[in-house]
Amino acid sequence: MNVLVLGSGGREHALSWKIAQSSMCEKIFIAPGNSGTKLVGENVDINVTDFEAIKKFVIEKSIEMVVVGPEDPLVLGIYDFFQQDKDLKEACLIGPSKEGAKLEGSKEFSKQFMEKHSIPTAKYQSFTKTNLEHGYAFLETLSPPYVLKADGLAAGKGVLILDDLNEAKKELKLMLTQSKFGAASDKVVIEEFLDGIELSVFVLTDGKDYKVLPSAKDYKRIGEGDKGLNTGGMGAISPVPFADKFFLEKVEDRIIKPTIEGLKSQEIEYKGFIFIGLMNVKGDPFVIEYNVRMGDPETEVVIPRIKSDLLNLFKGIADGTFGEKDFYVDQDFAATVMLVSGGYPEAYQKGKVISGLDNVENGMVFHAGTKDDGDQIVTNGGRVLALTSFGRDIEDATSKAFANAEKIESEGKNYRKDIGLDLLKQEA
Ligand code: AMP
Ligand code: GLY
Asked: Which of 6, 20, 352, 375 is positioned for an S-S bond with 40, CB 3.0–4.6 A?
């Protein structure tokens, strides 16, 4: 079958790399893609939120499977757009309905969903500018640090964690009355701080059955030792050693099952990935957030560990046989190290020539922000390349990925040399 993947990052390169390995894949297109996705399929110059252009292309190329990488088209309702158009009924779209995408698009919706289905999460209340004073009063009932979340999508920047009560009140006011995060902060969720270690678990579902994908931990800060500004993610490890069988059983019983049951009982159509951000609080899992897509760079470690044919799983979602499909995962560890542009996540330059890609050994290169410039590949974003390697343990996997990071040259390149280091102690 012909497949279209929407997106242009390392996540989409990893997804299309995996799909292209399926014997069922005739042709794969990536819109808009990058220099790496060109190696596994054909890039198409279409914006991921231009639904009419996507429709035209799907019909023209007889696409049967559309896999949505980023959240924006999902939150804007691309699933419903496909469902409602009779010319698109031959195509299956992997992603939730617009209602399902609210699990990521609205923090308040996701908190209400968790409350309704008794899914463990931090205690919370939400506020608008009309009840700012109540927000102050709620803050006073909490102990620091204070967690403030813009309700809507804010490009990963809408969460503030503050130690000081007065600062928390000031920021709440800025969010609600001065549109600190634009319309996304017209409503703010204030929640209890969860003290623990973070990890993520991923689920693929057709809305009835589910497969639990490998766990992963990402490294969000720019600096080593988790210091400095937040980024999209500087690296990832899978599996997470402390997410052992007992912990994952708790996640499945307390979180995954009630989430799928909740979707069913609220009649929310959901055919896609659920990314569950978790906090391990003294051995008990709590949900920090839902995302309605795969993570980036988590995809670059999770997807390579899946042994099963991903396109066959998607086909099962399309034809109602998903629950019967086998699902296998490689037991080895995977690590990915993200090479980023000098200056990122603040201002950085694009167009720097990348060399040494052919020298990579014992690993894979997933392109994130790259593009072709004549015969050369140049940087085209903050996060440039994800270097993934397998190993018998975390040290083995990360040492191969770090070695590859050294082999690639690009002016100003930067990467974190401590990916996975915090987990080594737990692994022993
Ligand atoms: P979110 O966008 O909801 O994932 O939040 C961004 C980051 O803020 C998370 O990855 C956590 O590191 C942190 N965070 C969010 N909510 C909480 C919470 N209730 N307690 C502690 N940390 C949190
Ligand atoms: N790595 C975090 C995310 O994709 O949201």
From this structure: 20
pLDDT at 398 over 80: yes
- Whether 362 is covered by a domain: the verdict is yes
Q: Distance between CA atoms of 427 and 103, rounded to whole angstroms?
A: 32
Same domain, 142 and 255: no
Q: Chain-centre distance of CA 136, in angstroms?
A: 32
Cβ neighbours of 216 (radius 10 Å)? 28
| Atom 5 of ligand 2, residue of closest alpha carbon | 295
Tell whether 157 and 238 lie within a shared domain.
no
Predicted local distance difference test score (pLDDT) of residue 422 = 93
The residue segments making up the domain with residue 326 are 197-427
Tell which residue, 329, 215, 203, has the closest CA to residue 280. Answer: 215
Whether 124 and 191 have beta carbons less than 8 Å apart is answered as: yes
| Ligand 2 pocket test, candidate residues 200, 217, 296, most atoms within 8 A of CB | 296
- Looking at residue 179, what is its pLDDT? 86
Q: Same domain for 206 and 179?
A: no
Same domain, 394 and 263: yes
Q: Write the Ramachandran bin of 404: left for phi over 0, alpha for psi from -120 to 50, otherwise beta.
A: alpha
Give SS3 for 393: coil
Judged against a pLDDT cut of 80, whether residue 427 lies above it is answered with no
